[in-house]
């Protein structure tokens, strides 16, 4: 609906997946997984409700990878906000959490479950996870803040792997979360 949709499509296609755009509820049919891109989480959240997509995703059957605003929408709790959300993960997030000095930055992230070599991550007005439930697997941190985590079929990242040449988080989603291999 918003955000770097084409870039996600490019990475997924390069990894051998068949990617299609989801704009309405019927587009969800036949999918093995869904990527929720960044953008403005309040807007995306409202559109997901309006199109009846939230209702289906809340059933929890479809693997979802949320990046940035997408991560915010995955959270049960959004600090200081009652904006619409999917609430698919036992996490509490803080929006625009790195503050003005770090509005946008790049960082290497150590995430051994994803790859033995650090990931290269681009953050843009990024959130981070302030607390996570016991079922949540923390995959990566920056300055001690959780920026990549997983709960079963759900994966959330505070950064934008689609804006780099680093395809390892998408590969992890396809191979380990969706389980279809790339
Ligand atoms: N700051 C945005 C929000 O809170 C997220 C930014 C992004 O997706 N790059 O919705």
Write the layout of secondary structure elements.
Layout: H1 5-14, E1 34-36, H2 41-50, H3 53-57, E2 64-67, H4 69-74, E3 75-78, E4 89-94, E5 104-109, E6 119-124, E7 128-132, E8 137-142, E9 145-151, E10 154-157, H5 168-178
Parallel strand pairs: 1-2, 2-10, 3-4
Antiparallel strand pairs: 4-7, 5-6, 8-9, 9-10
This protein binds glutamine.
What are the key terms here?
3-stranded mixed β-sheet, alpha/beta, 5-stranded mixed β-sheet, Rossmann fold, 28% strand, 182 residues, binds glutamine
In short:
The protein has 182 residues and is an alpha/beta fold. 23% of the residues lie in helices and 28% in strands. The protein has a single domain (5-17, 32-177), classed as Class I glutamine amidotransferase (GATase) domain (Rossmann fold, 3-Layer(aba) Sandwich), CATH 3.40.50.
Count, helices: 5
Q: Mind summarizing the main beta sheet? A: 5 strands, mixed
**What is the total domain count?**
1
Bound molecules: glutamine
Overall shape: globular
CATH architecture: 3-Layer(aba) Sandwich
Helix amount, in percent? Answer: 10-25%
CATH topology: Rossmann fold
Strand numbers in spatial order across the main sheet: 1-2-10-9-8
Radius of gyration: 15 Å
Number of strands: 10
The CATH class name reads Alpha Beta
Mean pLDDT across residues: 95
> What is the distance, rounded to the nearest whole angstrom, between the alpha carbons of the first and last residues?
25 Å
Order of helices and strands: HEHHEHEEEEEEEEH
Poorly predicted residue ranges: none
Share of residues in strands: 25-35%
